[in-house]
C-alpha cells in the first residue's frame, strides 16, 4: 500500500506514522496538511503500538494543528490516550508552554462524546482549568 511510505521505524523497533513525528516537532500547519492530503488514513494511525492518535500528539505538542486534525478525524476527541487521558485533558494539562485558547477547548468539547465527558468528569475539570488559564494563573 502507498501509505506504508509514511511509516517510520525507530532504533527501538517502534513504528509510527510520519504525522505523529511532525506533530511532535510542531510542524507548520501547511506541512501537516500536506501529509494528511497524501495519506488521510494517517489521522487514524496509532503511535508506538499504543492508543495514541495524531490528535493526542497535537494536543500535547502542536496546538496550532489541533483543529485541522480534529476536523479530519473528529471521533478521535472521544478516544483516550494510552495513559487514559482524553485529548482535551492533554491539551489543558500539557507541560509544553503554550497559551490555551477558548475556541480550541470549545471545539474539542463539542467533538467529544458527552457520555465520555461525564463519565470522566472531564467537563468540569476542563472548565476550571480553562478559567485559571484565561486569568493567567
Structural overview:
With 137 residues, this protein is mainly alpha-helical. Helix content is 51%, strand content 4%. It contains eight helices and two strands. The chain has helices at 18-24, 29-38, 54-61, 66-72, 87-93, 102-111, 114-120, 122-135; strands spanning 7-9, 15-17. A two-stranded antiparallel sheet has the order 1-2. A hairpin with a 5-residue loop joins strand 1 (7-9) and strand 2 (15-17). Helix 1 (18-24) packs antiparallel against helix 2, helix 3 packs parallel to helix 5 (87-93) and helix 5 (87-93) runs parallel beside helix 8 (122-135). The longest helix is centred in the C-terminal third of the chain and has 14 residues, at 122-135. The protein is globular, with a radius of gyration of 15 Å. The model has no long low-confidence stretch (mean pLDDT 82).
Structural class: mainly alpha
Helix content: 40-55%
What count of helical segments does DSSP give?
8
| Residue-averaged pLDDT | 82
* Poorly predicted runs of 5 or more residues: none
Radius of gyration based on Cα positions: 15 Å
Could you give a short account of the major beta sheet? 2 strands, antiparallel
N→C terminal distance:
48 Å
Query: Which strands sit side by side, in order, in the main sheet?
Result: 1-2
Sheet-strand content, in percent, reads under 5%
Q: List the helices and strands in order.
A: EEHHHHHHHH
How would you describe the shape? Answer: globular
Quaternary organisation: single chain
Number-wise, the strands total 2
Amino acid at each position: 500500500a502507498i501509505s506504508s511510505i509514511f511509516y517510520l521505524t525507530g532504533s527501538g523497533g517502534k513504528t509510527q506514522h510520519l504525522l505523529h513525528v511532525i506533530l511532535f516537532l510542531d510542524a507548520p500547519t501547511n506541512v501537516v496538511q500536506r501529509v494528511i492530503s497524501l495519506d488521510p488514513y494517517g489521522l487514524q494511525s496509532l503511535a508506538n503500538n499504543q492508543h495514541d492518535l495524531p490528535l493526542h500528539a497535537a494536543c500535547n505538542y502542536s496546538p496550532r494543528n489541533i483543529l485541522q486534525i480534529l476536523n479530519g478525524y473528529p471521533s478521535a476527541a472521544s478516544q483516550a490516550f494510552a495513559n487514559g487521558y482524553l485529548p482535551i485533558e492533554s491539551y489543558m494539562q500539557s507541560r509544553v508552554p503554550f497559551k490555551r485558547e477558548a475556541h480550541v477547548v470549545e471545539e474539542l468539547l463539542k467533538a467529544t462524546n458527552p457520555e465520555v465527558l461525564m463519565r470522566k468528569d472531564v467537563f468540569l475539570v476542563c472548565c476550571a482549568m480553562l478559567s485559571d488559564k484565561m486569568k493567567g494563573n
